[in-house]
Design goal:
mainly alpha; Tetracycline Repressor, domain 2; 9 helices
Length: 199
C-alpha cells in the first residue's frame, strides 16, 4: 500500500499539518528515517567490532554477525524499512549512499585484515563468464585489493547473514526452529570457518 505523510502523522497521533513543519514531504521523512537507521545499525556493528582485538579475526566476525541479529530483533520495524519491501514510489536519494555503506565497510575492513594476516578463503571462484571483470569493478569501486576468492566468500557470507536474519524476523522459520538464535550462531561459525577460511 502507498504510504503518505498523513498516515504517518495519524500513527504518531499528530496533526498532518504539524508533520509538514518538520518535513516537506513523505520522501524527505523516509530519507531521514533511512539514514538514521543505517547509522544505527552501523554504530552497533562498529561497536561490536571495536570490542575485539584487531588480530582476532574470528572473534570480530562473530561479534559483527551477532550484533546484526541483535539490532534487527530489537528494531524490527527499522530493519524492515531499510532491508524489507521497498516503499512504493520512493526512490532513495544520494544522501542515503554513504550511510548505507558504513555497516558493510566494517566487513570490508575485516576482510582486508584477514587477507593481510594470511587467511585464505576455502573456495574457488567459478569460471562464470565475466566474473573476473565484475570483481575488478568491485575492487575499484570499493578501493579494495582483495583476491576474487575473498570477495566472493565475504559477500556470500554477508548475504547469508542477512538472509537468515530476514527469514527469522519475517516469520519464515517460526515452525522450523525452537530457538533460531542457536541456528544463527552455528551458521555464523560455519561461514567464518569454512567460507572465509577463519580458524
Amino acid at each position: 500500500a502507498n504510504l503518505s505523510l498523513r498516515e504517518i502523522a495519524r500513527e504518531m497521533q499528530m496533526a498532518s499539518s504539524a508533520m509538514y513543519r518538520y518535513f516537506d514531504s513523505r520522501d524527505q521523512l523516509l530519507t531521514e528515517l533511512i539514514v538514521e537507521n543505517y547509522d544505527n545499525i552501523a554504530d552497533a556493528v562498529e561497536k561490536a567490532d571495536a570490542k575485539c582485538a584487531r588480530d582476532d579475526i574470528r572473534s570480530r566476525w562473530m561479534a559483527m554477525a551477532e550484533s546484526l541479529r541483535t539490532w534487527a530483533l530489537r528494531h524490527p520495524s527499522d530493519y524492515g524499512l531499510i532491508f524489507g519491501t521497498p516503499v512504493p514510489g520512493y526512490a532513495a536519494p544520494p544522501d542515503t549512499v554513504d550511510p548505507g555503506k558504513r555497516y558493510t565497510n566494517v566487513l570490508l575492513r575485516l576482510l582486508a585484515d584477514a587477507h593481510a594476516a594470511g587467511y585464505v578463503a576455502t573456495i574457488d571462484v567459478p569460471a562464470t563468464k565475466g566474473i573476473a571483470k565484475e570483481y575488478k569493478h568491485v575492487r575499484s569501486n570499493l578501493n579494495l585489493s582483495l583476491p576474487d576468492e575473498m570477495l566472493l566468500a565475504g559477500l556470500a557470507a554477508w548475504a547469508a547473514m542477512f538472509g537468515a536474519i530476514s527469514f527469522e524476523l519475517f516469520g519464515h522459520v517460526d515452525q522450523v526452529f525452537v530457538n533460531p538464535g542457536i541456528h544463527y550462531s552455528a551458521l555464523a561459525h560455519m561461514l567464518g570457518e569454512q567460507v572465509l577460511g577463519l580458524s
